[in-house]
Amino acid sequence: MMRETPRGTEIALSDHGRLKWQRVILDQPLTSRRWDGRWRVIIFDIPDKRKLARDAFRYSLKQLGCRQLQESVWITPHDCAKQVLALRELYGIGPFVRLIEAAELEGDKQLKTVFNLV
Question: I want to staple 66 with a disulfide (CB 3.0 to 4.6 A). Which of 74, 77, 80, 105 is the partner?
């Protein structure tokens, strides 16, 4: 559905349309032409009552090429903001997931090797 607003044209997606949009976002590869020197750290604390969503989120992060740093801490050198936002919405876990960009990460030499950055 489309409607005109003072800010421009807004499009409201149906549930089916939103799922298709999320699929398009998630199918985009997490690669950059050149690493910008920033780490993207995804942290989450998803309650046990949402275990299926938590497991699906972990699986999706792995599929995107993120690596597990600690139990609920994942990392990638690639810009993944769109994908993480889509996953949060898809699984209904927005309040439990945070994305951090860091210019420095202690002991990142091994990670640079894992992600072929050296």
Answer: 74
DSSP 58: H
- Domain boundaries, position 71: 2-114
DSSP-based three-state secondary structure for 61: helix
CATH number at residue 6: 3.30.70.240
Residue 20 CA to residue 14 CA, distance in Å, equals 10
Whether pTM > 0.85 for this model: the answer is no
Q: 5 pLDDT exceeds 90?
A: no
Q: 55-90: string of b/e by CB count within 10 Å (b at 16+)? A: eebbebbeebebeeeeebebbbbbebeebbebbbeb
Q: Which residue has the tokens 């949402």?
A: 50
pLDDT tens per residue, range 68-116: 999 999 999 999 998 999 899 889 999 999 999 999 999 999 999 999 9
